[in-house]
User: What shape does this take?
Amino acid sequence: MKVKIVAGVLEANDRIAANNRRLFDDNDLFVINLMSSPGAGKTTLLEKTITALAGEFRIGVIEGDIATDADARRIDALGVPVVQINTGGGCHLDGNMVRQGMDELPLSDLDILIIENVGNLVCPAEFNVGEDAKIMILSTTEGADKPLKYPLMFQESSVLLLNKMDLLPYTDFDLEKARKDSLMLNGDLEIIEVSCRTGDGLETWLEWMRERVGSRVVTA
Amino acid sequence: MKVKIVAGVLEANDRIAANNRRLFDDNDLFVINLMSSPGAGKTTLLEKTITALAGEFRIGVIEGDIATDADARRIDALGVPVVQINTGGGCHLDGNMVRQGMDELPLSDLDILIIENVGNLVCPAEFNVGEDAKIMILSTTEGADKPLKYPLMFQESSVLLLNKMDLLPYTDFDLEKARKDSLMLNGDLEIIEVSCRTGDGLETWLEWMRERVGSRVVTA
Assistant: This one.
């Protein structure tokens, strides 16, 4: 019974996500769904990405949080269109919430839409929102046991950004284990080591974005 | 409609949690529900706590994870009774899962039961499992914006362990803001700064445990 309800929720979500997808396509938008544990560095990655790509692409942002508009204010300070969605306790964004955010954004004037999900390594991975790619962050301070303990997000993601590499010397993070287990779960996963604070490794991530967006968008 | 279903789930859970509570009382058990983001240090805190208190109290553990028995094996190595619950995708433990774990433990031979919840700063705070106290960990590497962004867990907890204090010099964690916002959300919250890795501050936490358990348990 419980399983049926859950399946119903996910099916309904998939229908809404497919509608979002059509709207994204109609507007030639490249859309990423950014996911991680709380505090892994999603908003800082966003700030660095927007600053680096602002001259090349028109970027919009949907910020998902349980409460506060703190992240939206950080993005708004960069001068790009941003919508804050407060889930009011909900632990993930779903297709319908993203749709509501889309309605507040000038989609036809954008090349890239970045959706920052609620900080949670579990539930966001279950809900498609119509994105082109799911991007996840794992920070070195979280430990190398996370891929095996939270497998779905690693399986669903196209890119794993290993963040806080600047803190690696102060942790016992096992880089080889994290890489090995992540690739065992998802052989297609692209793993990029970065430090959002120092900027190390971000050029590889920006190149990934440029390639993907470039294949969709003609103008810049 | 959706809201009604959620309310029904929470009410059913509260009934099961109340049954768990009676069983805990019947066995003079002090029970804590340990919650945090993934990788904040729950299992390491557990290891240090068990090692320090093993000569004084009889401790049992319920380990909640989405997948793997990695944490249960870490606890089993310390020679205390432990049960692993795999939620199979579920993002939190509920009363029923804990009840199933309880059935596998020698409750009458224990003084303390520690329930390590799934790593998630959101959903675990919504589900009572019959515990005496909710204990949460926030690590300095997660950032000081977390209390306002994930308020429920801070409101529900009796103790906030601020972990990874050894990494504080390498982060921009604003200790004063974290303290101020946490206490604004929950004036009764006891905040203890610790480093589970170095052991700094753990004595204050162990004293908190000793006082609470001592008021329930006569023998040791």
Remarks:
- Residues 2-213 of chain B form a domain with the Rossmann fold fold (CATH 3.40.50.300).
- The interface with chain A takes residues 5, 37-39, 65-68, 70, 89, 91, 118-123, 126, 139, 141-143, 145-146, 148-152, 164, 166-167, 170-171 of chain B (CB under 8 Å).
